[in-house]
């Protein structure tokens, strides 16, 4: 298992206005912290891992096959293979767990 605290974790900005920090992972699961600036968008995509999230602050719209909005204090689950994207309706922070881990986010 690899792990870092929020201050130590490498900040990766992709796409613009979206900063991801991978905090911990093993082969079965991964925990990431995301900061989105108001108006930032994550394009529609899909991936094999299940994605479970919790909005720490802000408000985001999740686009795609099952559109919904999530505000601070709300949790969500995006099933494996479901097409989705995100638009930050205000400055937003959320944490997400991916299961299994996403190899492309293993950037310690």
Concise overview:
The chain has a single domain (2-105), classed as Jelly Rolls (Sandwich), CATH 2.60.120. It has no helices and 11 strands. It has strands at residues 2-3, 12-13, 18-25, 30-36, 41-45, 50-57, 59-64, 68-71, 75-78, 84-88, 92-99.
CATH superfamily: Jelly Rolls
Helix content: under 10%
Quaternary structure: single chain
SS-based class: mainly beta
Main β-sheet description: 7 strands, antiparallel
Number of helices: 0
Shape: globular
Distance between the termini: 12 Å
Strand segment tally: 11
Q: How many domains in all?
A: 1
Uncertain residue segments: none
Order of helices and strands: EEEEEEEEEEE
Average pLDDT works out at: 96
Radius of gyration: 13 Å
The CATH class name reads Mainly Beta
CATH architectural type:
Sandwich
| Percent in strands | over 45%
Named CATH topology = Jelly Rolls
What report would you give on this structure?
With 108 residues, the protein is mainly β. The protein has one domain (2-105): Jelly Rolls. The chain contains no helices and 11 strands. The strands form 2 sheets. Strands 1, 2, 3, 4, 6, 9 and 11 form a 7-stranded antiparallel sheet that branches. The protein has a 4-stranded antiparallel sheet with strand order 5-10-7-8, with no helix packed on it. The mean pLDDT is 96.
Topology:
Elements: E1 2-3, E2 12-13, E3 18-25, E4 30-36, E5 41-45, E6 50-57, E7 59-64, E8 68-71, E9 75-78, E10 84-88, E11 92-99
Antiparallel strand pairs: 1-3, 2-3, 3-4, 4-11, 5-10, 6-9, 6-11, 7-8, 7-10
Task: Give keywords.
108 residues, mainly beta, Jelly Rolls, 7-stranded antiparallel β-sheet, 4-stranded antiparallel β-sheet, 11 strands, 55% strand
């Amino acid at each position: 298992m690899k792990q870092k605290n929020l201050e130590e974790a490498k900040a990766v900005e992709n796409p613009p206005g979206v900063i991801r920090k991978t905090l911990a992972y093993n082969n079965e699961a991964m925990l990431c912290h995301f900061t989105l600036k108001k108006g930032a968008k994550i394009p529609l995509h899909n991936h094999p891992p299940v994605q479970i999230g919790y909005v720490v602050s802000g408000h985001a719209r999740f686009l795609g096959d099952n559109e919904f909005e999530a505000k601070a204090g709300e949790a969500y689950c995006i099933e494996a293979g479901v097409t989705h994207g995100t638009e930050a309706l205000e400055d937003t922070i959320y944490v997400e767990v991916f299961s299994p881990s996403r190899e492309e986010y293993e950037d310690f």
